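Batch manifest, entry 17 of 40.
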Amino acid sequence: MHTLERPRLSIQPPPRDELRRDAHGRQLVRRPADAVALLAAVGVLVYLAWRSGTVTAVDEGVAQLVGALPDGLHGLFEGLYRVGSLWLVLIVAGIAVWRRSIALATTVTLSGVGAWLLGKALVVAVDSDAVLAGVSSAFPLVRMAVVTAVVTAAIPYVSRPYRILGGCAALGVAVAAVYLSSGLPLDVVGGAVLGYAVAKLVLVAVGAPAHRPTTEQVHTALDGLGVDVVDVVEADSPWTLAAEMNATAVDGSRLWIRVLGRDQRDLNIVAKTWRWLAQKDYEPNFFVTRVAEVEHEAYVTMLAQRAGVLVPDVVTAGAAGEGAAVLVEKLPDGRPLNTLAPEELTDSLLDEVWRGLAGLQAAGIAHGALSSDRFVVRDDGRVWVTDFSVATAAAPADRRHRDIADLLATSAVLVGPDRAVDAAVRAVGPDGLRDALPYVQAVVISVPTRRAIPRRSKLLDQVRSVGAARLGEKAPDLEPLRRITWKNIVTVVGTFIGVNALLAQVGSLSDIGSALSDANWWWVLAGFGVSLLTYPAAAAGLMASLPNRMPFARVAELQLASKFTNLMAPADMGSQAMTIRFLQVQGVDGAAAVTSSVATTILGAIGDLALVLLCVWAGGLSLSTGGLPDGLGRTVLIVLLVAAVVAVIVYRVPKWRTKAQPHVQQARATIKGLVTSPRRSLTIVLSSFAMSLFFALCLGACLLAYGVHLPIATLVVVNWTASTVANMTPVPGGMGVAEAGLIAGLTAAGVPTDQAVAAALTHRLLTFWIPPIAGWFAMRDLTKQHYI
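Output type: structure tokens
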């Protein structure tokens, strides 16, 4: 008869961490609670630093209260205040070394010295000028930071009496600092928060003694729960984030004990919270007490057993001393599924594995972690399902679909996609497979299974393809499960950059209001209406460059969405990238998408140049760069030179030339195809003509709003010159450069400076700053409809 041999899972800490222990042999671990406390302390410290230049009523009240203490306490408070010096660090670290607690000595030293250094740096950086009753602010108070850091760093290592003594010492230093007028009350609080944050940072980096029940405590707890055992030992390879132990009952049966202490529960809460934040439609189970959590696991396990699923027998669940809870189960004899040899993984065994999941599905239970080590195979071929620590009773449909997807991936790792899909169809039927295929993705798969899949493997894609082929359907789209994606982050960052860039250019909302106060709003609305015509004009030009048909409304919406991305990238690079992505989603080859976009740009630029030259000749105008920012010509020249150097390097390096040559040939073929098609080429040129005219008419309407009129030819030249120079500079959207170009062109055409500035600002608001607001919604809609 085989005994259960649990494999080492990926959640086990690396070997070097196992050797990191304190003087009492407790393993040093990094607690999530310390990381959360660190983030909270940093936030509070930033707020306090921001308020450090202001004397609050609380400062005044505390200063008056402490200042009312008798003068005879001066000597006592001077002694207390000296406790916050670096000598405290040396003394505590020395005692720790004498007690052979190197971990405590290291933690205290790093915390105390780090708090002292950061405190000194912040005093210089903040440089608060607040004064209260002749006392100048010194934010943060360094001595307070040192004593708080030492006390906080030592708390995990020492017993309760020493913790109380440390807290009293820190409180004494705080009162002494205010009594001796060494700083304001806010400085004292800032020092305490800084010391706390530094100590938590060190504890996160170095670790702290694990707070977990010992085997002796668990043995005693089992006696109290009426479970007689011979011995209790730590499990070598735990299945879950909890502490796990093995025991032998008096009748010889083997027991598995899951122990939830403070640290283990913190890990569970952080893991569930992160999954809830990162994934859509994930509803974790949070429990008020640890006992409630193990009782829930026992309840779900017994529900599964009542439904006919082979699961471990629940012996008991309850409290295990102060702040801990235990779940005791009787383990079946057997081997984990992932330890079996390939020849042992027969179809009948796979059917037994999937039969267990089918029973859970019928009972409405979602297991939540169906990796191969959760299945125990006995010699008679029966398979037990274990570990219901993250299971859910009465689970919604999507949670059950995730279980099928998880087991599909687990089976595919063991026997390949074809046999895995066949076993799934036999167990849950075609409908169950169809519902689960959109969930076959890395975010759903349990961690051990995910790490068993080779890097860059296409296994999950193969599972979806094979599953769709078995159903006679095309591979389904993935269910959007991630709440936080790189696209979300880029969108948020882009919004932040755009808002800050807008404020940097216009100064403030009052500046905008004063600029628009004298405008004729009917002409402003007319200019805005004309600017809207640029989007269908641009869409017509893009569609003419493509060999296949596109939905015109979506292409026009794409032009609006590009207004948002142009806030984040110079020279319309954001617009180009979004256009290429849109075309690829519509089935256009990647190279063709790039070359079509480039070809449209080139033909459009040629058309614009022809229109401008025509306007210059017809209006007797001359081009001038007077009034543009200093050094602009040098910047443009540098950009052109860099582009030329890159082109020469690519051409001279054979490897790069070989990679670039197909794209160059594709671009040449695309441009040639457009040139040899007069209708398509003419459409692109006319589209560019129309856009230039609409932008010029918008500028003209903005001028009329302030009582100034210019010929259309002049407006075309001014707008084209400003936009061309702005696009050649490495500034997103040509911010600042475009405005300067418009003002310079308008003043050169005889427009008074005040009206030129107002008209240029109004034009940019209508064509550059307002459209990204609608562009953000357009981009969200295109993303939702899977066009980008």
